[in-house]
Amino acid sequence: MESTNKPLEKLNILSFKGIQMRTFHLTWMAFFLCFFGWFGLAPLMSVIKTDLGLTKSQIGNIIIASVAATVVARIAIGKLCDTWGPRKTYSALMGICAFPVMMVGLVHSYEGFLLFRLAIGVIGASFVVTQYHTSVMFDKKIVGTANAVAGGWGNLGGGVTNMVMPLIFAGFVGAGYLPESAWRMAMVIPGAVLLVFAFVYYFFTKDTPQGNFEELQIANPKSVKTKGTLAAAMKDKRTWALFLAYGACFGIEITFDNVAALYFFDNFQTSLATAGILAGTFGFMNIFARAVGGIVADKVGKTFGLAGKGRLLAGLLAMEGIGIALFAQSGSITIAVLTMLGFAMFLKMANGATYAIVPFINPKALGSVSGIVGAGGNVGAVLAGFLFKSENITYSQAFMYIGVAIACVAAVVALIDFDKSARVVTGAEKLEVAEA
Predict the structure, then answer these.
(1) What is the pLDDT of residues 170-199, one digit of tens each?
(2) Which of 24, 54, 217, 240 has the greatest CB tally within 10 Å of its CB?
(3) Is 295 helix (H, G, I), strand (E, B) or coil?
(4) Between helices 366-389 and 126-137, what is the axis angle to 10°?
(5) Is the Cβ–Cβ distance between 205 and 88 less than 8 Å?
(6) Cα(98)–Cα(30) distance, rounded to whole angstroms?
(7) What CA–CA distance (Å, rounded) separates 129 from 28?
(8) What CA–CA distance (Å, rounded) separates 338 from 225?
(9) What is the pLDDT of residue 2?
(10) What are the coiled-coil residue ranges (predicted)?
């Protein structure tokens, strides 16, 4: 019988038994809810645009702001996971970020909205804790699959948000609120839920299968020292290859979450609800697509090692780039939806494959590696955001440029030998060797 305080070797998604599976489910649920706070405004932007009198350039700045703060936040949160522990880190992140989510409705100017969008973007660092916490709960044989399922089901929040927030908005309109008030009231809902879930996460999870960091510190003062983890992660070229890869997949995913509803609304003259549903189908594929990427990566890894996982990732990125280029040239809504579903499959599989590699780069610097790679996703989103901000580039042209850029990243990833790259040893690992 498997020890209850060891990482699990099997992922039974129907089980809530044990701290590992309870943490797994609460982690993806937390990430799912974070998406409502992070992207709850995206499907309402056509209303907000009219209410605040926003220009295309200003909307571009808002898109950039929504992901820019996450770059720094993910690196910081990754380091906190290594030192403070994922339980307290996640709880604090949700609790603090719940307030700008609830209060964004107080603004009545572009500048105020931009600042709140920047503050709300910090909650995007929730992904790093999700991947870290899942990684420490599962054995290396299954960690890629576990990470992909947790990340995918959490990312599903991006799709569900596009579908649900217009309904919440409509509910407030039906209750008698004007549209310019209804979008503000709608954002109180995800903020309040995040605040409640922060307490749930704190009281019902643990940092590791063996217990919380502070408990392990008391039992063995040297057991959780992680000095030098960020420096070690930054000195490994594989970390930066994955940084680029994640920018090319997840970075484009959150960019698409931001612009999809507006793109369908403007380009194909759909209703707000229809645009939200179409955009939502993109995110909804996370219920299985990211998990498929993790499962395939784990199977490839058993036969071909990390080098095989790297080649798989490069191939998925190449197919994603081709799919986005085809989407950019779609002349009808039918072709646009079909090509969107095609590139979405490869994009989300690439997400899963990336974090099937991350836990093996440097296990003692897992939080820092996860943070840097996760930040890469947001750097990709920021760069893509500048394309959508430009007054001289149409959204279709922006998607074409993105497709070409992803193909270039795929070529870089294909050149990296993930098996043989030297890994820098952290202070904690030197200590363990000395003690042995």
Answers:
(1) 999 999 999 999 999 999 999 999 999 999
(2) 24
(3) helix
(4) 150
(5) no
(6) 12
(7) 10
(8) 50
(9) 43
(10) none
Q: How many residues does the chain have?
A: 436
Average pLDDT estimate for 61-69: 87
Whether residue 204 has pLDDT greater than 60? yes
Q: Tokens 């149409």 sit at which residue?
A: 394
Q: Which amino acid is at 110?
A: Y
Tokens (6 digits) for 24: 């797994």
CATH topology of domain 18-435: Growth Hormone; Chain: A; (1.20.1250)
Tens of pLDDT, residue by residue over 418-434, are 986 444 443 344 333 33
Helix axes 45-52, 110-120, angle to 10 degrees: 150
Joined together, the tokens standing for residue 11 give 């992922």
Q: How far is CA 36 from the centre of its chain?
A: 12
Of 351, 347, 353, which Cα lies nearest the Cα of 403? 347
Tokens for 330? 């779609």
1: pLDDT strictly greater than 70: no
Instruction: Decide if pLDDT at 435 tops 70.
Output: no
Closest to 316 (Cα-Cα) out of 286, 284, 344, 288: 344
